[in-house]
Specification:
The protein is of the alpha+beta class and about 750 residues long. It has three domains: about 450 residues, Multidrug efflux transporter AcrB transmembrane fold; about 130 residues, 2-Layer Sandwich (Alpha-Beta Plaits), CATH 3.30.70.100; about 90 residues, Alpha-Beta Plaits, CATH 3.30.70. About 65% of the residues lie in helices and about 10% in strands. It contains 24 helices and 14 strands. Strand 5 and strand 6 form a beta hairpin. Helix 15 runs parallel beside helix 20. The longest helix has about 35 residues. The chain is elongated and about 85 Å long. Keywords: Cell membrane, Membrane, Transmembrane, Transmembrane helix. Pfam families: MMPL. It is found in: Cell membrane. It is a multi-pass membrane protein.
Amino acid sequence: MVSDLLITCPEGRTVSHTSSRYSRPPVTVRIARWSATHPGRAIGGWFAFVVLCLAAMSVAGIQQASQLDLGIGESGRADRMLDEGGLESPITENVLITPAGADAEAAAADVAERMAALPEVEAVGDAVTSPDNASVTVPITMTGDEEQAEEDVQALLDVTAGVQEQYPDLLVEQAGEASVMKGFFALLEEDLGTIAILSLPITLIVLLVAFGAILAAGVPVLLALSSVASAIGLYAVASYAVPDGGTVTHLVLLIGMAVGVDYSLFYLRREREERAKGRGTLEAVEIAAATSGHSVVVSGLAVAVSMAGLYLAADVNFASMATGAILVVAIAVIGSLTVLPALLAKLGHRIDRPRVPVLWRLTNQQRPPRFWPAVLRPALRRPAVTLVVSVLALLALAAPALNLKLTDPGEESFPRSLPVMQSYDRLVEAFPSTGASHTVVVEGSAADADAVRSSLEELAGRTDADENFAHDQEPVIAQSEDGRFSSLTVGVPFGPDTDEAKHSLDVLRGELIPATVGGLSGASAAVTGDVAGGVDYNDNLSSKLPWIIAFVLVLAFVMMTVTFRSVVVGLTTVFVNLLSTVAAFGVLALVFQYSWAEGLLDFTSNGSVVVWIPLFLFVILFGLSMDYHVFVVSRIREAADRGLPIRAAVREGITSSAGTVTSAALVMVAVFGLFAAMRVIEMKQMGVGLAVAVLIDAVVIRAVVLPSLMALLGNANWWAPRWMRRTPPVSAAGPAESSELTRVG
């Protein structure tokens, strides 16, 4: 066991692992030792934990964030005023009939009669002819809130389909908030189901190539799946404090499969490496715990710290993402330290069974590697030239991100392959006011209700004469029963994310409101709606972004500096991780803003990237980059602590970890690449950004930039202030990894 080893320290002294200086092995070793010597309890405890988490989810359910939870800035304040006054806009659907004429009028009457008979319908409005006399629409108001309407809208869609069958010479179609969201979520669930089916076999294939044995490939997948299930269960409880913005379960699956497999892979590869040297199973497990186990802890903390930066955004969506990601990473780390050693001890040498004949021989060759030393040769022979060329190449790749255009996700970004979105586009073209709108909300005293209404009528009159607002339907004024709250809704003849729509909001907030309701004493006005919500969301994100970036960078620097007791390692970590991240942003801009890969990825570019993607990718990528960085630098530090010159240490550290890092990267790229194949643009952008960044990080950064930078710095890599040198430097893997281990007796 590790406690029976002699350790050759960096300063050349040989001491027993049980001497006073190393009398207490690292906590990762103590946990692994207990799990390995009590495998039944450890495995049973993990199984019970997973079952309890799933039971919690089945009992509690996941609390979804409401529109009020998601509101930000002035638009969020207006939404809360609407809610308090009971003035929330009802959920409406529109049946569009084309072309207009006698048959269309008959069809509209049929639609109205059938819809009015449905319990899901509160009211049916009069048929309205479009300004160009080409179409007719029947407005329908549904009962219940937004969530209930999405469940009930199928009954309305069935009626519309029935009328279409009765009038085959007409085009009868339906679009509205509920039907659009129903179609969107059906598409999303279909894509996610496909990913869930494909991700497991793809991950298993990569791991089979990495290990050459079925059990060894299956253990990381099993741990990852159990971590994902447990995290979703725990988040169900946490969602009552941090409600789900709608993407948490997808994110937990994405991150959980990636880190769960990676952490197990690091641990398992080190354990097999030690067994190949002739060590027993328990001894190999303890050494893996002291080395890779410690790296897993540091990596997990790095990912959690990066994700915690999202809390600074003061946004429920980001807070829920951070909570879900931190939970799944923490559970994956705990599983790697507890149940994984137990499984390895229980299986012993059987972990390498059944062997896949050809793959086993390829992955267990004893001859020195040739590929990675050849790749590293330029970086180690001419580090300055290699560093300059590689950094300039990555900066050139990042250059398109300088003009990155961000847009708010919404109906405009939904796939046009959806039939309901085609109907939505035709509806908005025929009736502009059925698209985006502004809602002005005023709070005042009940005694001023008449004055407020008069001011809102004046405001509505001013919009009638302004081309920035829609004129095909009259603005709608409403007041609460107690007279304290009033609202005015006016349509916009532009898409919600267009410059024209944003200009109309500026006109409303900056000119029309101050000239009308803004002049009322004791009254407070705010604007909400699709356009206002998007603008306020972007403004909030822009104001918080510098603080989030600073938070992540500073804590990453501190963590790596403390872990390796080297200021230079902390600085180089920030540098190389930033480099890979901005390069990924450049690729994201090329693919989605400049539409370089529309045919390859099967999408139509709208010339922008979804607004939350860059911030999300930054924190995720910085955390995942630390995953590889900690592992690779630990192996380099281990070699350096044994007395190897820095270039030899870099060569050994990278070549010895290259197989593990490559396998882990392939798993991540495969899982993230599946998301790139989704039809929902946000998921596609997220998948492409993550896959490209991991590929750049694992190949270019770890094989070119990092080795050339460390070779150039030489022994300065380990520089630290005098006060940090009081404790002898060790690698992130703990004492065992920074030392040469020799059996006693």
